[in-house]
Amino acid sequence: MVWAGSVRCLVRTEPAGEAGREAALVLLGRADRPTAVLTANDLRALGGDQAARELRLTIPGDLSVVGFDDLPVASWVEPPLATVHQPLVEPVECTCCPFGRVGGGLWRSGGTGTATGVCRR
User: What would the DSSP string read from start to end of 64-93?
Assistant: First the structure.
């Protein structure tokens, strides 16, 4: 998914970068072009980044692009992609393994939330 400005601009896509590029081209071609695009993963965001460059928009001057997942590839573009760090192991532990055994004793996971944060590069 790619969000731009409001729910009325929601575009559903495949999870790959090319789908993010195509969705961003549609959004950025609108008369009421968004100033920011938030995508559901970094690959889509990189596709949005590519679409902006094809349209000769500057990042972050004309458009802000934000991804999710904090993949290493997010730092390979210039300027580096803004991304939301989301731990991959903690949600699985909280969802699938709320109880476990350590040293013969029973323990409970410390909580059901995970630590997320915006990565500024």
Answer: EEEEES--GGGGSSSSPPEEEE--SHHHHH
Domain span at residue 33? 2-87+114-119
Residues shown for the chain: 121
At 93 the pLDDT is: 54
Q: How far apart are CA 113 and CA 66, in angstroms?
A: 22
Domain with residue 23: its CATH number is: 3.40.50.2300
Q: Is the pLDDT of residue 2 over 60?
A: no
Q: Is residue 43 part of a domain?
A: yes
- Encode pLDDT of 34-89 as tens digits: 888 888 889 999 999 999 999 999 999 999 999 988 888 888 888 988 988 877 66
Number of folded domains that form the chain = 1
